Amino acid sequence: MSFLSVVRPPLIAVLLAAACFSSIASAAVSATALELRKQAASKVVAILVVAEHFRQGSGVLSLSSGSGTLVSAEGHVLTNSHVTDNGRSFRVVLADGREFPADRIGEDPISDLAVLKIRSPGTEFGFARFEPAPRLEIGDPVIAMGAPWGLANSVSSGTVNNPARLLVSLFQDEADYEEGFNFDQPTGRFYAWIQHDAPISPGNSGGPLVDAQGRFIGVNTRGSFFGGDMAFAIPSDEALRVMRSLIAHGTVLRTDFGFRVRSLKGSGAKRGVLVTAVDLGSAADQAGLRPGDQLLSINAEAVQARRPVEVPAVQRRLAEWPSEKVAEFTVLRDQTEMRLRFAGEALPATLPEEYELTRLGITVRALTPTMARRRGLAETPGWLVTGVRPGAAAALAKPALLVGDVLRRIHEQVVPAPNEWQEPAVDKLKLQIERRASELLVVLSPADPDRARPPNRALRKPWAGAEVQAITRSTAEVLGLPGPGYRISYLYPGGPLQVAGFEQGDLLQSLDDRPLLPLHEDDDRVFHSRIRDGLLGEQMQVVAWRPGAEQIRAALSLQVGPAEADALPGAEVDRLGVTVREISVRDVAERRLPSAAKGVLIERVEPGGLAALAHLRAGDVLHAVNDQDIVDLRSFHRAWAAALSADSASLRFAVQRQAARRLLLLDRSWME
């Protein structure tokens, strides 16, 4: 008998007994953990954001969603800065369904964290506490909470894959990885991420990562759509540091010494960290620091980073030193230790705001010293061109402006802050720009953008009052029809063909004894061009075939056709974010509207505009706003003006969408 066979029975008995005992204990623990997780979920919110993003020289409103966590009784909400980035208005939806407007208190793109505050004075909220020192191991169960794709109160589960992950692959230079997120504002340099495999999707950003006991251990920030479920969360200790600073000061104070470091991995060095880059013209450069130096200590305190994952702690120590205060650095160069003393400068928490200069047709951002040094540019005042609108003044300038140009002077004057610039009343502007190593002079003619859509001139053209289907000879044989022609597929009420006694389904064979012979099945041009060649008021002899009857002959009196869609009055309403026009006869047919339909047709809805927030869609026929009927464009303007001045909690829009009449509501708080 083997040793195994002797030992196995008592071992199994022990394991079974332990399992019975542990099942009783774990049932109590799991019930408690479940309740804690439910309590955690009640602190999670969905965030709706109307943001203005700039593309090709123009600002465009968009609507997006994210997630967040209530972190104070006063209604502070912690989320990601890429959720709030360029936000113009915010709404927070609580787990119990209540909705509140919110204001942005602070934003820190460097850590990708932001804080909103619910606008509801006197209301107290239940809130979460993030762990100040999370202890995680590979394989620990975790739960991602939030609103993926805008679906609130969602959770997904997984495990910790790596509690301290630096987002640098084996094929990448660790010194460059952070700049892959944003050249001017690297993200994630001060912490290592929590990598886990709880599935997250767009909309989960900013929501919490919770452990099995319901403790808040991170902020979900990034996911991967390739290579399985790979998600990354900001650790809760870093989130706490940033959150407290944003609530207290609206920003996070950091220092930039003008150099970057990497680990000793692969360098052969044994001590400190390796200086990998020094910005030209920075304090570090002027003090004599060089790439390749080993940084051994900061203010006599040793630093060490043998692996890439240890670098963020060193970067955080550098950033937390007060700007303008001289620090002492011990470095090793060619086996010789030396001490360098220099101060850093304040590291802006956010990039300068982007502005649209409408008459020039560009978007610009004020150039900061850090941005200038990264591009090897002089730090004198300037505007970085971030977008050029096609066909606008800047695109037609001599030479045309390009993205990346730096605008230095306008009419010999150094450019001020973009929001302070007053355009001179001149027909032409002389600009001085910097493009790579060249200084260029540009002549530009400012112009108002043509945002109105002028209607095309309506020509007086004869009209038959029908839509037709081309029937070729081969098609006629298959269908058993007497020959080629044009089959009436739709008759406009009161149109010439209906008045002449023709019906849907009739096959039109000739006009004025000239046969109608389509060239192919999609060719309705022959019929319409023959009608348009006629004279208004004259009669044309039409021969047609009707199923079950002999040939039909009738005189067709040509009338002036109704205006096409592009010849009807229309308007672009900026405040509502729509383009509308009056209804055409063709709209009545194609949208199955009543023959006497009134209202205006919505042609375009700006993503993120008020109309989009009211869930209006392109193609809707708008019949009323706040119970004021709309029959044409003029009455639409009256109804919209009255709605803006009305004292009501919401705006009501009556529309027809396909075959249904619908009522849509817009919460007026979005308009504040």
UniProtKB/TrEMBL annotation:
Any Pfam family hit: PDZ
Keywords: Hydrolase, Protease, Signal
SUPFAM superfamilies: PDZ domain-like, Trypsin-like serine proteases
InterPro entries, per the entry: Chloro_Bact_Ser_Proteases, PDZ, PDZ_6, PDZ_sf, Peptidase_S1_PA, Peptidase_S1_PA_chymotrypsin, Peptidase_S1C
Record-linked PROSITE patterns: PDZ
Keyword Signal: yes
Position of the signal peptide: 1-27
A Gene Ontology BP annotation from the UniProt entry: proteolysis
Residue ranges constituting the PDZ domain according to the UniProt record: 239-304, 555-633
GO molecular function, one term: serine-type endopeptidase activity
Entry annotated with the keyword Protease: yes
Protein family per UniProt: Belongs to the peptidase S1C family.
PANTHER family referenced in this protein's UniProt entry, alphabetically: PEPTIDASE S12, PROTEASE DO-LIKE 8, CHLOROPLASTIC
Name used for this protein in its record: Trypsin-like peptidase domain-containing protein
